């Protein structure tokens, strides 16, 4: 299936294909913006529907970017039609049958934008503008793109609805494959709406684009950023699945979790803060483990080490995400960089205790303290956790609504 849609081209072919290189626009600002908007629309809205909030307040961005208006105008229309709890269905985008050879239904590759003036964008779209703001005035030059090659795992080109990939090096596990597949699915979900574009993608954890020189920062996509870097954030591969640890695509996990959430009501859950993960990837996680319950102290935390090797040998019986929503409070703490676990923790109908993060992925900056999560201090975690849990258990009405 992958091969059918992602045509891998050798370096030579890509650079000698004059239609690709010569016609590549000098300013790819707008197509990139649109790509991010489509992706954010698809995922953030699904996450939002699980966080029992009313954060659907739109922000007027006006006519600054016609692209944003196009999408948002449609968006707000469908929002009126369904409830604010709308859900995007990604599975409808690929319909493959396996009778003999893999074949997937063809979808039209061109379409027309429904243009409407004066649309409104959800509040969280403003982060996209901020992330690509570095290129807003001067655009993106060929030279800038090429400079991103230094650390990129692949270059991806969308040309008339087809995806072309030039690979530079292998990523960790299957991150690159799932990321490319995500873009292919996006093209099928929004046929004709993804403009021709070219982007460089780095699948490693830590952001690397530091300090914008006179020449301008290279536009490099990755899964997370921080306040010192200019990397452009993109949904991580696990939204489309994480094969190595048996995590299914987001919309499947979300359904399972909603079922799981209904099984135990908030009030009936264990009145403690739960965390399970790999503590060896970051000092802050080892620091967190000190808050575990012992014979001499109880900070209201119940912390466990996830042993993925053992789990994989046991068929992942104990790592089912939906069955981890058993506590009233769940702790989110970064690992080596941002942690993929974030969305799964938030999707439990528990109170998320978020240890002050350094990194951001494409949606975390839109979350509001005391509305979507309870902030936990990085220094003095144990006290902070105990205070949050005690407060929550004493104010059950306020918390569970
Ligand atoms: C997928 O294709 C099969 C066979 O062509 C068809 O019967 C089925 O309804 C399609 N499913 C969707 C979701 O479009
Ligand atoms: C935390 O304490 C619980 C209960 O005593 C124990 O089962 C668990 O293994 C401890 N976790 C760690 C990481 O030591
Ligand atoms: C995992 O769970 C399945 C079904 O519940 C069971 O058949 C299997 O024996 C379990 N595997 C291990 C290693 O515990």
Automatic annotation (TrEMBL):
Domain of life: Eukaryota
Domain Glycosyl transferase CAP10 residues, every copy: 193-401
Keyword Cell membrane annotated: no
SMART domains reported in the protein's UniProt record: CAP10
Transmembrane segments: 32-51
Keywords: Membrane, Transmembrane, Transmembrane helix
Name assigned to this protein: KDEL motif-containing protein 1 isoform B
